[in-house]
């Protein structure tokens, strides 16, 4: 106890607590900086690990792969027919493909969805297996870039024919031909788990094939694994896909990296893949889905294999990847559970697990919490009781902002008019400036509003980082400039009685009296500068504007206000939550900050102790 | 006077006794293996498709001991047996231990005693100690006695002082040591040869404390044992290194072999096995170089000829055997005697000398209940001579007394 007392005395003597309180904004910024740095150091040697196969039963590439020349002939035969199917209607295509599948004994059925078209699928029951589990080979007729997936469809049917002749399967094999890798495939997966009659047991894993060229040769394979809403497939599945691909001699590209950068493995290449990985993970479902996103949510591990380029490896080499993957998955007795579900890949063979990258998002949450604390105690109104009217009004405003945000999110789901949304957002940013002389709020309210806003955002961010780390990191970093918005104090308010229990009114000298005598221009200029700064920060941190800017700068896929459209359609088609994260997580906070940035009048504070 | 009369008889008795015990101890110093039957307990503690090689290990050992003569009634085979008919097996109904598929280990006449979920730690310990309820079938019991040599082979996934049973439980090395002690107290074995092929296998025999156990393990503590090779068609590893090289040696053994366990141990090198094989001999009476492979792996019984000259098997052990000449050595065993084989073309002077003492079975007349201590001719004559001498001396001494008494009476 004596030690604690000594410490306490030292702290009081040094005046540590007031100093820390004064420095809270700096601490908050330092936390955010720490968040950035802790992600940026991950590509350094010693911070990441080599990938390894956790589940010993998988044994990737231990069995020889036989999908070779004789199957190539079969594939070419099918492909020559498929090339002419591009302009057929989807029912004609599905009927033709269905008849081919039935030729070698597959049970087929067509799932018809009102909205998303027809999906053909076939189930090959394992003759010697117990038939309770299944592996899926999914081939969209038109791939994520809306090109006709000729090679993929040919591979699909020839692989299915090849698989039907092997007796080694212990799980059923389901071949799915959907119109596109987006809503059509996802609606099929949903129907499979609810309403379809022909099923093959619970799906363990899915491989989506995308080979859009009609040529026999390709250069490298891009493997996509980002699932919807922050889900990732088990790292074992990704590792066996990469290991098998490299074993067969092909190069692996992650997150759209072009061929010439595949050989690099230094700090910058890893940092690049890490950043692209975080971006793709956060925007998964919003960017063009590759196909594996369709399986998220049902504990199905899925990856997409996409062939790029012309010349190098032949199509049967590409076909050996799903063959070997199926042989490996076939060995399993349990669902994937051994390896990581939360990871970031820095290179095809290098990764970091959640313990390495999570501190970054936590740091951003903490930064917001410290900002909230700063807004509470780092001003003259710290001693106001908890039940004062300012707190209650702040909470009321928060509640109203939640309701308003929810209404906005629903309105724009129904009426996807993005232009309107952006103009409204921009217009509201100018409100404090436009209404600068007319509307005033009291200063304590301004601080309380900020307090509530940052606290709420910190809570949202903390809950989100468990589920969807990348999204939490994204909104945390993009919204952080909100903490730099300063309350603008102008003039003094009239004497104001605080209606609480034991206060008596005491007149104190208002500080603003002094200011008024010193040249209005200095004050005015400072005020104007601050208002412009606030405006800029408000514009930058508006959820919709911010995400649009982010998408335009960091992603080639989006043009103009595309991303907001995509956010809305991702919810409507795929049930991706990102739209609601922005609307209900970020927007209320922004609205509160907007409210707090109106000009405010200082208020006389009755101190509890002085009773003169 | 009376004492003087009894003294010669006493002396005679003492002399005869000492000679008999002398000859007895003489006989005991001859190292005769005293087992009359051989048993094998072969255990694979793994299940699942990717542990194919453990199944292949045990089935290979099973095949070896069967080939060398141990009947199924004396083999206890414990397997999970989920590999041959696994839907992932490209060759249904077959288990191979080599990618050349030369031998189908599961081909015919495999009798599994404990299969699937019956392979548990409890069943294994009960098997060793024979603590069963009355209705437990005899074919699943280890019905050994004090003249049984038992070969115990275990394979699977192991660690520091433990072995994993069927992915659900573990057996500790202390448990096996205690089971062996129970077996010793119940006189359930003559000698045990314990072989274990797992990771950190040598720890499994570190806790044994009962006599007459010889143990060999495939790797040291903190060392892994490795598989030998994979079969790319089946898609799994098919045999472990230690067992592969054991089999490499044992495939050259047949029932006539005079190779010893020391030869087997010498064939294990680090370059082949990739781990340090350990051998524990301190609990074992005999030197491994005196123990024939067939003492444990085959069902061979040694015959003791009833003759005036005691024949010791250890004569054979002085020859330095080589693998090439092994098959040309003539073994003194029941098989060859019954066949009435003579040395024929392949005799050597030492063999001839010994063969003079070998009788064919129809001439043998061993009385089981007879006293083992049989005296040789030289010893018999020495004893008779001593007796005669003593008799003469005592007679001469007695004569004086008689004369004295006679004189008294004649006075």
Mind explaining what this structure looks like?
- The complex is a heterodimer of chains A (612) and B (411).
- Chain A is of the alpha/beta class and 612 residues long.
- Chain A folds into two domains: 49-348, Aminopeptidase (3-Layer(aba) Sandwich), CATH 3.40.630; 383-609, no CATH class.
- In chain A, 51% of the residues lie in helices and 14% in strands.
- In chain A, the strands form three sheets. An eight-stranded mixed sheet of chain A has the order 2-3-5-4-6-9-7-8, sandwiched between helices.
- The relative contact order of chain A is 0.12.
- Chain B has helices at 2-28, 52-67, 121-129, 173-185, 241-250, 261-266, 270-273, 294-297, 314-317, 323-326, 334-338, 349-355, 377-410; strands at residues 37-44, 75-79, 114-115, 148-155, 157-159, 162-165, 169-172, 191-197, 213-217, 227-231, 236-240, 278-280.
- Chain B is elongated, with a radius of gyration of 28 Å.
- Chain B is built from 13 helices and twelve strands.
- In chain B, the strands form three sheets. Chain B has a seven-stranded mixed sheet. In chain B, strands 5-6-7 form a three-stranded antiparallel sheet. A two-stranded antiparallel sheet of chain B has the order 10-11.
- In chain B, strand 6 (162-165) and strand 7 form a beta hairpin.
- Chain B is of the alpha/beta class and 411 residues long.
- Helix content percent band of chain B: 25-40%
**What form of chain B results from the Cα inertia axes?**
elongated
Radius of gyration of chain A: 30 Å
Structural class, from secondary structure content of chain A? alpha/beta
CATH superfamily of the largest domain in chain A: Zn peptidases
Mean pLDDT of chain A, to the nearest integer, reads: 90
User: Main beta sheet of chain A: strand number and arrangement?
Assistant: 8 strands, mixed
Distance between the termini of chain A: 38 Å
**Pattern of helices and strands of chain B:** HEHEEHEEEEHEEEEHHHEHHHHHH
Low-confidence stretches of chain B: 21-31, 314-329, 367-372
Q: What is the number of helices of chain B?
A: 13
Pfam family, one (chain A): Gaa1
InterPro entries (chain A): Gaa1 (IPR007246)
Organism (chain A): Saccharomyces kudriavzevii (strain ATCC MYA-4449 / AS 2.2408 / CBS 8840 / NBRC 1802 / NCYC 2889) (Yeast)
GO biological process, one term (chain A): attachment of GPI anchor to protein
């Amino acid at each position: 106890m004596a030690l604690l007392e000594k410490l306490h005395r030292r702290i009081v003597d040094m005046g540590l607590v007031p100093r820390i309180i004064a420095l809270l904004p700096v601490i908050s910024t330092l936390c955010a900086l720490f968040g950035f740095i802790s992600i940026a150091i991950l590509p350094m040697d010693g911070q990441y690990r080599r990938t390894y196969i956790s589940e010993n039963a998988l044994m990737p590439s231990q069995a020889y792969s036989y999908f070779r020349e004789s199957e190539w002939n079969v594939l070419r035969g099918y492909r020559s027919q498929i090339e002419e199917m591009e302009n057929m209607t989807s029912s004609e295509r599905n009927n033709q493909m269905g008849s081919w599948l039935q030729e070698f004994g597959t049970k087929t059925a067509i799932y018809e969805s009102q909205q998303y078209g027809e999906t053909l699928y076939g189930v090959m029951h394992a003759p010697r297996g117990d038939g309770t589990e299944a592996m899926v080979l999914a081939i969209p007729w038109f791939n994520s870039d809306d090109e006709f997936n000729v090679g993929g469809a040919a591979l699909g049917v020839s692989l299915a024919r090849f698989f039907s002749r092997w007796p080694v399967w212990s799980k059923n094999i389901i071949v799915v031909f959907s119109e596109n890798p987006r809503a059509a495939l996802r609606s099929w997966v949903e129907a499979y788990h609810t309403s379809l009659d022909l099923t093959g047991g619970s799906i363990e894993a899915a491989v989506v094939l995308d080979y859009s060229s009609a040529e026999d040769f390709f250069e490298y394979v891009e493997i996509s694994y980002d699932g919807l809403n922050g889900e990732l497939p088990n790292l074992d599945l990704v590792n066996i896909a990469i290991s098998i691909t490299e074993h067969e001699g092909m190069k692996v590209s992650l997150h759209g990296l072009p061929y010439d950068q595949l050989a690099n493995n230094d700090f910058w290449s890893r940092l690049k893949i890490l950043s692209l990985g975080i971006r793709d993970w956060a925007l998964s479902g919003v960017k063009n889905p590759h196909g594996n996103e369709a399986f998220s949510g049902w504990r199905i591990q899925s990856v997409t294999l996409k062939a790029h380029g012309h010349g190098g490896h032949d199509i049967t080499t590409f076909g050996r990847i799903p063959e070997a993957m199926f042989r490996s998955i076939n060995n399993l007795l349990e669902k994937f559970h051994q390896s990581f579900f939360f990871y970031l890949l820095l290179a095809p063979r290098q990764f970091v697990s959640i313990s390495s990258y999570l501190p970054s998002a936590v740091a951003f949450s903490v930064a917001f919490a410290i900002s909230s604390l700063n807004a509470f105690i780092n001003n003259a109104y710290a001693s106001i009781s908890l039940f004062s009217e300012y707190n209650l009004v702040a909470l009321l405003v928060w509640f109203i902002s939640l309701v308003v945000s929810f209404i906005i999110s629903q309105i724009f789901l129904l009426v996807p008019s993005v232009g309107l949304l952006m103009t409204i957002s921009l217009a509201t940013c100018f409100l404090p400036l436009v209404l600068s002389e007319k509307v005033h709020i009291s200063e304590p309210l301004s601080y309380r509003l900020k307090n509530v806003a940052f606290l709420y955002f910190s809570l949202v961010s903390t809950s989100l980082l468990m589920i969807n780390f990348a999204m939490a990191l994204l909104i945390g970093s993009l919204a952080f400039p909100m903490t730099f918005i300063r309350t603008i104090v102008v003039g003094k308010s009239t004497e104001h009685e605080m209606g609480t229990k034991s206060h008596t009114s005491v007149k104190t000298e208002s500080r603003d009296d002094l200011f008024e005598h010193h040249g209005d221009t200095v004050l005015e200029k400072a005020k104007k500068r601050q208002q412009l700064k606030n405006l800029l920060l408000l514009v930058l941190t508006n959820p919709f504007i911010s995400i649009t800017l982010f998408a335009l700068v960091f992603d080639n896929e989006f043009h103009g206000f595309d991303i907001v459209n995509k956010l809305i359609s991702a919810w409507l088609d795929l049930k991706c939550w990102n739209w609601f994260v922005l609307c209900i997580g970020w927007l209320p906070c922004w609205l509160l900050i907007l409210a707090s940035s109106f000009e405010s009048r200082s208020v006389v504070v009755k101190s509890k102790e002085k009773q003169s | 006077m009376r004492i003087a009369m009894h003294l010669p008889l006493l002396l005679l008795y003492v002399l005869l006794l000492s000679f008999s015990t002398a000859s007895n101890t003489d006989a005991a110093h001859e190292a005769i293996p005293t087992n009359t039957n051989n048993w094998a307990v072969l255990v694979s503690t793994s299940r699942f498709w990717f542990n194919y090689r453990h199944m292949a290990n045990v089935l290979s050992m099973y095949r070896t001991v069967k080939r060398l003569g141990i009947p199924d009634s004396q083999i206890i085979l414990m397997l999970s047996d989920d590999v041959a008919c696994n839907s992932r097996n490209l060759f249904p109904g077959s288990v191979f231990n080599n990618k050349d598929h030369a031998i189908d280990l599961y081909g015919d006449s495999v009798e599994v005693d404990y299969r699937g979920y019956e392979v548990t730690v409890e069943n294994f310990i009960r098997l060793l100690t024979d603590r069963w309820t009355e209705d437990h079938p005899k074919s699943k019991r280890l019905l050994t006695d004090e003249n049984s040599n038992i070969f115990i082979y275990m394979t699977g996934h192991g660690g520091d002082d433990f072995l994993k049973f069927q992915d659900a439980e573990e057996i500790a090395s202390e448990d096996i040591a205690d089971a062996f002690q129970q077996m010793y107290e119940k006189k359930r074995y003559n000698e045990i040869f314990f072989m274990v092929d797992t990771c950190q296998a040598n720890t499994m025999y570190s806790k044994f404390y009962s006599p007459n156990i010889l143990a060999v393990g495939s790797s040291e503590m903190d060392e892994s044992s490795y598989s030998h090779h994979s079969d790319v068609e089946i898609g799994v590893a098919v045999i472990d290194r230690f067992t592969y090289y054991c089999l490499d040696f044992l495939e050259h053994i047949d029932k006539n072999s005079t190779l010893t366990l020391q030869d087997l141990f010498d064939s294990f090198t680090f370059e082949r096995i990739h781990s340090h094989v350990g051998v524990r001999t301190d609990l074992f009476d005999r030197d491994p170089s005196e123990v024939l492979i067939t003492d444990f792996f085959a069902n061979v019984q040694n015959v003791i000829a009833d003759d005036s000259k005691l024949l010791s098997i250890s004569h054979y052990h002085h020859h330095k055997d080589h693998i090439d000449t092994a098959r040309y050595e003539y073994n003194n065993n029941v098989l060859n005697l019954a066949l009435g084989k003579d040395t024929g073309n392949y005799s050597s002077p030492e063999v001839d000398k010994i063969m003079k003492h070998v009788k064919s079975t129809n001439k043998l007349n061993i009385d089981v209940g007879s006293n083992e201590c049989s005296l040789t001719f030289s010893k018999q004559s020495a004893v008779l001579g001593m007796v005669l001498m003593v008799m003469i001396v005592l007679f001469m001494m007695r004569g004086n007394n008689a004369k004295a008494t006679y004189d008294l009476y004649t006075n």
